[in-house]
Write a structure and sequence with these properties.
Pfam families: Na_sulph_symp (PF00939)
GO cellular component, one term: plasma membrane
Distance between the termini: 61 Å
Order of helices and strands: HHHHHHHHHHHHHHHHHHHHHH
Protein name: Solute carrier family 13 (Sodium-dependent dicarboxylate transporter), member 2/3/5
Structural class: mainly alpha
Number of strands: 0
InterPro entries: SLC13A/DASS
Subcellular location: Membrane
């Protein structure tokens, strides 16, 4: 049976590859629209093909990203030096540092300490546990890459469900926790460039393409207020939609676990000091974020500190995601450099130029959230939207940051289907169904848009 399934899957993948190749030649050989260069047409066609391959995963994301980067040279939309520079920008170093920082949090035991203390503070009250879990994970996700945080929470949550005999797909409390926590992580992850891997990709891409620097401070002055407002709103929505079926959980004695944790260990204190200095550097120095982040990661490996070792480094890096970010960024920059992004902005978005800025922001945010249904891979969504939005904003009379950042924040709102890794981790537990997530995701996407527009109304 498994052999037949493998053969069927292989045949399906081969068909998709052939269709994708044919599609590229069809799109690149259509009459070139006025205002678009042949190189621009080819770069758009290649991006469409890359999206098909990434979404269907007919080739693993990492190798596929390398392949599409090389193809830009073959089809002559970029020279080899341009391709190399576009594929490995500073963004890559920041993404690598995010993975390392997340691993350091786990390896020191600090992450586990936070979760255990959180559970103890809930005093076995379901709603209180949900509120504390969402607030704390939202707060931590401001500065820690989302996936590591989601993965850290699930095992402890499952233990609670099992001790309380909560059945998969039936327990509302389990649903509220496993849906509420990744939603809170996504909200907090939008708050700073360090909160999610695609954030800095969006920030760097918009800055390079528009020629208008968008700083760490630009991001957080709107992102953090948004996260602070949106997190409690999300909690009340989750509680209303998935009302816990129990008023008190079976007594979970956390005292023994707290006692086992003991006092803060040397490595935990070292991590907190290094990380605090890193955050401070982002606010008060001109050192580029990726540079300071890599320096901080280097300190983790120093003798007498040794928060991480070679094994920890190997465990930390998800090269598939890194290569995906590199590949999607390279394709996005090529679309910009060939003039295709400008053409898209002028031809597709020109009817929206006269629209009220706040309505335009609302439309852009909602469009971005619902684009996840077509393009569930966040780095790819950054590559599609950010170049076009960055070019379009000045033509609509809106500051680049005022339109780019709401879109960049909304790229984190992948809570319509459990396809984003942050949700995939909790969905894999089997405690909620594919239909459960939209029950919270659809209304929260509307609330997300309203809150974002209110914040931007104060700015504009």
């Amino acid at each position: 049976m498994s052999v037949k399934k493998t053969e069927s899957s292989s045949t399906r993948n081969a068909i998709i590859v052939i269709i994708t190749i044919v599609l590229y030649f069809v799109l690149s050989n259509l009459p070139t629209p006025q205002g678009l260069t042949i190189e621009g047409q080819k770069s758009i066609a290649l991006m469409i093909c890359a999206l098909i391959v990434w979404i269907t995963e007919v080739i693993p994301m990492g190798p596929a990203s390398l392949l599409f980067a090389v193809l830009m040279v073959i089809i002559k939309t970029a020279t080899p030096p341009q391709m190399a520079a576009n594929f490995m920008p500073l963004t890559t170093f920041f993404c690598i540092s995010c993975f390392i920082i997340g691993q350091a949090l786990l390896d020191t035991g600090l992450g586990n300490r936070i979760v255990v203390l959180l559970l103890k503070a809930s005093k076995n009250r379901p709603k209180r546990m949900l509120l504390l879990s969402m607030c704390v994970t939202s707060l931590i996700s401001l500065v820690i890459a989302n996936l590591a945080l989601s993965a850290m929470m699930v095992p402890l949550m499952l233990k609670i469900f099992q001790e309380n005999n909560m059945k998969p797909k039936e327990s509302n409390f389990a649903k509220s926790m496993l849906i509420g926590i990744p939603i809170a992580i996504s909200i907090g992850g939008a708050g700073t460039p360090a909160g999610a891997l695609p954030n800095y990709q969006a920030l760097a891409l918009a800055s390079e393409i528009s020629g208008t620097p968008i700083t760490f401070l630009d991001w957080v002055k709107w992102g953090i207020p948004f996260a602070v407002i949106m997190t409690p709103i999300a909690y009340f929505a989750i509680v209303a939609i998935f009302k816990p079926e129990v008023k008190e959980l079976v007594s979970i004695n956390m005292d023994a676990q707290v006692k086992e944790l003991g006092k803060l260990k040397y490595k935990e204190i070292s991590f907190m000091v290094i990380f605090a200095l890193l955050i401070l550097s982002w606010f008060v120095t001109d050192i580029p974020m990726p540079v300071s982040a890599i320096i901080a990661c280097g300190i983790f490996f120093l003798p007498k500190i040794e928060i991480l070792n070679a094994e920890g480094f190997k465990k930390a890096i998800n090269w598939n995601i890194i290569m995906l970010i590199c590949g999607s960024t390279a394709l996005a920059l090529t679309i910009f450099q060939t003039g295709a992004a400008k053409w898209l902005a002028e031809s597709v978005l020109s009817p929206f130029k006269e629209m009220n800025p706040l309505i335009l922001i609302a439309v852009a945010v909602l469009l971005t959230i619902y684009m996840h249904l077509l393009v569930p891979v966040n780095p790819s969504l950054v590559a599609i939207l950010i170049p076009v939005i960055a070019i379009f904003a000045p033509t609509a009379g809106i500051p680049v940051a005022a339109l780019v950042l709401p879109v960049a924040y909304a790229i984190n709102a992948a809570f319509l289907l459990p396809l984003d890794p942050v949700f995939a981790v909790t969905y894999a537990s089997g405690y909620y169904t594919m239909k459960d997530l939209p029950k919270a995701g659809v209304p929260l996407s509307i609330v997300w848009t309203i809150v974002m527009v209110i914040i931007m109304a104060i700015v504009l």
